[in-house]
Design goal:
The complex is a heterodimer of chains A (311) and B (223).
Chain A: H1 19-32, H2 34-67, E1 73-78, H3 84-96, E2 100-106, H4 108-119, H5 124-132, E3 140-145, H6 151-159, E4 164-169, H7 173-213, H8 215-224, H9 228-268, H10 278-310
Antiparallel strand pairs in A: 1-3, 1-4, 2-3
Helix pairs in contact in A: 1-2, 1-9, 2-7, 2-9, 2-10, 7-9, 7-10, 9-10
Chain B: E1 2-9, E2 18-25, E3 30-34, H1 41-48, E4 56-61, E5 64-65, H2 74-78, E6 81-84, H3 96-106, H4 111-124, H5 140-152, E7 158-162, H6 170-184, E8 189-194, H7 197-201, E9 206-211, E10 214-218
Parallel strand pairs in B: 3-8, 3-9, 6-7, 7-8
Antiparallel strand pairs in B: 1-2, 1-4, 4-5, 9-10
The chains are: A alpha+beta (311), B alpha/beta (223).
Bound molecules: adenosine-5'-diphosphate and magnesium ion (MG).
Adenosine-5'-diphosphate (ADP) binds at residues 11-12, 17, 35, 37-43 of chain B.
C-alpha cells in the first residue's frame, strides 16, 4: 500500500489565493460599472488608434523617402534601351559633372533585388515571377554631391547627358515631405498625449467607482487581516483587463483599416505612392499596443489604489 | 498579553480622546470596558487594532510593539484579533454562511478549510439552522451572532466587541454576553466595550471604567 503523505497544515500565513478568485473579482468589478468600463476601453482604444495611425504614416513616409534617395543624393534613371556600354559611358560623363562626388550604378537586377528585400516574404511570389520574365526596373545612377555645391546646375548638366531619362532629387520632393512629416508628427504627438491623459483619468474614475462599491468589503477585509496584496490585486487586474481589451480591439480595428487603405492605395497610386504591407508593421504595433494598454490600465488602478496602499 | 503604557491619543486640536492610559490584560481574561458616550472606548479598540496609532506611549500585544507594525506585517497581527463591529457590518447580499466564509477567504484559507470550519463556528453561535438565510431575515441578536461568528472565523486569540448590545433588546443582550463568556472558555481573551453599566455588573468579571479619556477605576483581575 502507498504510504499516505500527511496533509499540509493550513496556516493563515500561507497564501492559498487562487488566480481564479482574483480574475473573477476583477470581472465582477468591470461588470458592476459596465458603462464606465466600456467608456474606458473606448477612449484608450482611440488613443491607441491615433498612435497606430501615427506610426503607420511615419513608417510609410520614411519608406517612400528611401526611394527618393538619401541626403545629398540625386537619382538618375537611364533609358531602357541603353546597352551596358552606353550605361558605362553615361556613368563616366556623370562623374565629370561639376559637383558630383561619387557615382554609383544600380543595375536593373540590383533594383529588382532591393525592392524584393524591402517588400518582405509575403510578396516573394510576385518577384519570382518577375525574375523569370522581363525585368520591369530600370538601371539608375546614384550621385552624391558636395553639400555646398550648385545643385540646380548639377541637375541641369546631368539632364543633358544622352540616355538620361528622369532625375529625382531630394532638393525638391524630399524636403517638402520632410516638412509635412514634421507637422504631422507634432499634431499626432499632441493628440496622443491628450488621449493618453484622458484615458488614464477615465480608468482612474472607473477603478474608483469599483473601489467605492466595495468599500464595506474592503473595511471588513482589512479588519480580519487580509493582506494589501489580496485587497488590491482584483483592482490592479481590473485596470490591466481594461487595458488589454482596448489593446486587442484597437489592434483589430487598425489591422482592418490599414488593410483597406493598403489595397486602395495599391490600386490607385501604383508607383507614385508605395505602402508597406500590414505584416511589416503589425509586429511592432501589436507589441506597442499591448504595452501601452497594460501600462495605462495599471497606471490608472495604481493611482486609485494609492490611497489604500498608504494606510 | 495586552499592555498599554502611558498611551495618549489626540485627534487634531481637541481634548485628547485618551490620556496617559496604563492597562494590563492577561491572556485568557474576560474584561469589560465601560464608560459614558465619548469616553474614548472606541478609540481604545481602534488603537488595539492599529487602525489608529498612539500619539504618545506604546501598546504591546504579546510582547510586540504595535507602533512597529507596517503595511506588510499589520495584516498578520490583525489575524490574532477577532473584531465585532457595533453595527455588525454584515453583507446583505451574502448568506450567513457566506458572511463567515468571507473572513476566511480574505486571509487565503482554502475552500476545503472553509467548508470544514464554518459549520463548526455556526454551531458555537447557535445559528447552524440559519446558515442559508440573508441578514435581512434575521433578528438583531442573530445578526450580532453572525458578526461574532465572522470574528471567530480565523481562530483569533483575542475577541474585541465594541458595544455588542448597542443595537439589540435587553433579553438578547444577556444572551450575547453569555455567548461571549462561553467563547472565553475556548481559550480566548475577550474584551467587551459597552456603556451599559447595569448589564455588566451581573457578571462579576473585571471591569475597567474610563471617563473623558482616563482610566478611573479597574476592579482588577477576576477569578
Ligand atoms: N476620527 C476622529 N476624529 C476626531 N475626533 C474623534 C474621532 N474619533 C473620536 N473622536 C473624539 O474622541 C472622543 C472619544 O470618542 P470615542 O472613542 O468614539 O468614544 P466612545 O466610543 O467611548 O463613545 C470623542 O470626543 C470623539 O468626538
Ligand atoms: Mg464608541
Amino acid at each position: 500500500m502507498l504510504e499516505r503523505k500527511p496533509r499540509r497544515k493550513i496556516s493563515v500565513t500561507k497564501m492559498a489565493y487562487s488566480p481564479f478568485y482574483f480574475i473573477g473579482q476583477a470581472f465582477k468589478n468591470i461588470w458592476r460599472n459596465v458603462g464606465m468600463s466600456i467608456a474606458s476601453v473606448l477612449i484608450l482604444m482611440a488613443c491607441l488608434l491615433v498612435t497606430g495611425a501615427f506610426y503607420s504614416v511615419e513608417r510609410n513616409i520614411n519608406y517612400n523617402l528611401e526611394g527618393l534617395g538619401g541626403l545629398n543624393k540625386i537619382l538618375v534613371y537611364i533609358n531602357e534601351e541603353c546597352t551596358e556600354d552606353q550605361i558605362r559611358k553615361i556613368k563616366e560623363e556623370a562623374e565629370n559633372c561639376k559637383g558630383a562626388l561619387e557615382v554609383t550604378l544600380i543595375t536593373k537586377e540590383e533594383a529588382l533585388k532591393d525592392e524584393k528585400d524591402k517588400m518582405g516574404e509575403e510578396f516573394s511570389d510576385i518577384f519570382e515571377w518577375l525574375e523569370e520574365g522581363e525585368n520591369p526596373y530600370r538601371a539608375s545612377l546614384e550621385i552624391e554631391y558636395e553639400t555646398d555645391s550648385d545643385v540646380a546646375a548639377l541637375e541641369k548638366a546631368l539632364k543633358n547627358i544622352d540616355g538620361v531619362d528622369k532625375i529625382v532629387s531630394r532638393s525638391d520632393t524630399a524636403e517638402k515631405v520632410e516638412q509635412i512629416k514634421d507637422v504631422v508628427s507634432k499634431v499626432f504627438l499632441g493628440m496622443m498625449v491628450l488621449l493618453f491623459t484622458v484615458s488614464v483619468f477615465v480608468i482612474i474614475t472607473s477603478i474608483r467607482l469599483a473601489l467605492s462599491a466595495r468599500k464595506k468589503e474592503i473595511v471588513v477585509m482589512r479588519y480580519v487581516g487580509a493582506t494589501g496584496f489580496f485587497i488590491t490585486v482584483p483592482f490592479l487586474l481590473e485596470g490591466a483587463l481594461l487595458g488589454l481589451a482596448a489593446s486587442l480591439a484597437a489592434f483589430g480595428v487598425q489591422y482592418y483599416i490599414y488593410g483597406a487603405v493598403f489595397s486602395g492605395v495599391s490600386e490607385n497610386f501604383l508607383g507614385l505612392l508605395n505602402l508597406l504591407p500590414a505584416s511589416a508593421l503589425s509586429g511592432t504595433l501589436f507589441k506597442s499596443f499591448l504595452a501601452i494598454g497594460l501600462v495605462t490600465g495599471l497606471l490608472g488602478s495604481t493611482v486609485s489604489l494609492a490611497k489604500y496602499l498608504n494606510k | 498579553m495586552i499592555e498599554f503604557r502611558n498611551v495618549t491619543k489626540l485627534y487634531g486640536q481637541s481634548a485628547p480622546a485618551l490620556e496617559n492610559v496604563n492597562l494590563k490584560i492577561e491572556s485568557g481574561e474576560f474584561v469589560f470596558i465601560i464608560g459614558e458616550s465619548g469616553a474614548g472606548k472606541t478609540t481604545l479598540t481602534k488603537l488595539l487594532l492599529r487602525e489608529e496609532k498612539t500619539s504618545s506611549g506604546d501598546i504591546y500585544v504579546d510582547g510586540k510593539r504595535l507602533r512597529r507594525l507596517n503595511f506588510f506585517t499589520l495584516p498578520y497581527y490583525r489575524r490574532k484579533i477577532g473584531f465585532v463591529f457595533q453595527d455588525f457590518r454584515l453583507f446583505e447580499k451574502m448568506t450567513v454562511y457566506e458572511n463567515v466564509a468571507f473572513a476566511m477567504r480574505a486571509v487565503g484559507q482554502s475552500r476545503r478549510a472553509i467548508a470544514k470550519k464554518v459549520p463548526l463556528i455556526l454551531r458555537v453561535v447557535e445559528l447552524e439552522d440559519k446558515r442559508d438565510r440573508f441578514p435581512s431575515a434575521l433578528s438583531g441578536g442573530e445578526q450580532q451572532r453572525v458578526a461574532l461568528a465572522r470574528a471567530l472565523a480565523n481562530n483569533p486569540k483575542y475577541i474585541i466587541a465594541d458595544e455588542p448590545t448597542g443595537n439589540i433588546d435587553p433579553q438578547r443582550s444577556l444572551e450575547i454576553m453569555e455567548m461571549l463568556l462561553k467563547i472565553r472558555e475556548m481559550n480566548k481573551t475577550v474584551i467587551v466595550v459597552t456603556h451599559e453599566k447595569a448589564l455588566v455588573e451581573r457578571f462579576g468579571q473585571r471591569v475597567i471604567t474610563i471617563s473623558k479619556g482616563h482610566v478611573v477605576s479597574d476592579t482588577g483581575k477576576s477569578s
